[in-house]
Amino acid sequence: MAGNLQPHKTGISKAGFLRQLKDRKIVQTIAAFIAGGWLTYEIVHWVLVVHFHFPEGILDIALVTLLGALFSAVIWLWFGGAQERPGRVRVEVLFVPLIILLTLAIDVNLTLKIFGIYAASAISLAALGLGVAWIVFKSLQWAARVPDKGREEIKDFIAADPRPEKSIVVLPFKNISPEEGQEYFSDGITDEIISDLSRIRAFRIISRSSAMTYKGSPKTLPEIAKELNVRYALEGSVRKAGDNLRITAQLIEAASDTHLWSERFVGSLADVFDIQEKVSRAIVIALKQKLAPDEEKTISDRPIPNLRAYESYLMARRDMYQCSEESMERALQSLAHALEIHGENSLLYAAMGLVYIQLYNMGFRTTEETLKKAERLLDKIGALEPESSHRYHLMGTIERSRGHPQKAIGSLKKAVDLDPNDPDALGWLGNLLSLYMGRPDLGKPHIKRLIEIDPLVAWNYSA
User: At 453, is the pLDDT very low, low, confident or very high (cuts 50, 70, 90)?
Assistant: First the structure.
């Protein structure tokens, strides 16, 4: 029942900004331009001006051209490396041509000035008009081409089957507990059922990120099923009052709104693991799916069998998804408390390791010690479960953070082999192969799978 632990990537601090400059090769590009630009300028000066007696105005032309090329390269690398593009707008495609137009306009003006011709106003107006026309043209083109978060752009990228036979969305279970502050528990139940079902290879289960989009949504089941391209929906509610627990669940054929199975489970809080397993098995039976031995084990496994430690783990999961430094610190405290209650546990160590990696990647704690803490936790997981998917997932994210993309790819491949429906591992793997290694042919199958199970997250479409 191990969940997908990686929180979503959000904004970065100053330190994170500096890391992105390096990752997108902007620092290297500026350094190369300084060296190459100086050499070019010196050649123009000594060869063309001094030796061949060209007008000195040609030095201004060379300088403007070099600066225009530098700004164009930096903008292209920065925006071209962005993972999120609102409306799929490519800022670099809008502004690089404008910089080129401006550079050419200045160069033409400087060239004419050498010959005593002054036409700066006419040239500037022409360049401005062409620039505005380009922006209007591309904006209208994108508006007409990319409706609804860009999903239409990759129709050929998703399986041709309009409604895969055993595709399911587990909608957020409603919290109807009388006590306040129990939302984390109902969300945790949803997450664990998603995790269980996603390990069954014959099923296509929509990931947590996309499923949680419909929390409190007024949309009908047929509308949701159409948006996610699924055949079935599982929905339910959780009522937790003290140590008493009641969970209802129902499986629905979404297009026709036909109920295939429903049940109400009543028990104590200690029964939560049994109830989760019963719900997952009921779905398997309703869809007439035979489980492989490893799938049987996954459903019956209880990676955190201690109830109080499990509750602390669910609280940590809630805080991890909030992606602030304060929420990450709360998550670390909850996980440390869970370890105190339960003792050594690979899933708790993996969750804690991913918190440290998230703190590092978001620029909150960009120290060597932060990475070392994650690596020490990785060693502990290796001693307990050396071939677990969450060990390889954590290993891959650490290696990526250390700037070792090839090693990260090897680890993430192993994570995906063990858990083919882990959206975070799929996303990192596809992104590294496509963008960092320049092999979109190898990254495409992973991104395709990612979009099938997590279609509502914008950054999934960027690789």
Answer: confident
Distance, in Å, from the CA atom of 369 to the CA atom of 366, rounded to the nearest integer, reads 8
pTM (2 decimals)?
0.61
CB 315, CB 351: distance < 8 Å: no
Cα separation, 346 vs 455, in Å, equals: 30
Looking from the CA of 444 toward its CB, the CA atoms found within 13 Å total 9
Residue 245, strand partner residues: 240, 267
Asked if residues 452 and 159 have their Cβ atoms less than 8 Å apart, the reply is yes
> For 362-419, what is each residue's pLDDT tens digit?
888 888 999 999 999 999 999 999 999 999 999 999 999 998 989 999 999 999 998 8
Calculate ∠ Cα 158-148-457, nearest 5°: 65
Find where tokens 């290694």 sit.
Answer: 437
406: nearest Cα among 450, 438, 378, 379: 438
List residues bridging with 307 in a β-sheet.
none
Which of 432, 426, 425, 418 shows the shortest CA–CA distance to 445?
426
339 alpha carbon, distance to own chain's centre: 28
d(CA 92, CA 281): 50
Beta-bridge mates of residue 251:
234, 261
Kindly report the number of other CB atoms within 10 A of residue 332's CB atom: 19
Q: Are 226 and 206 in contact (CB under 8 A)?
A: no
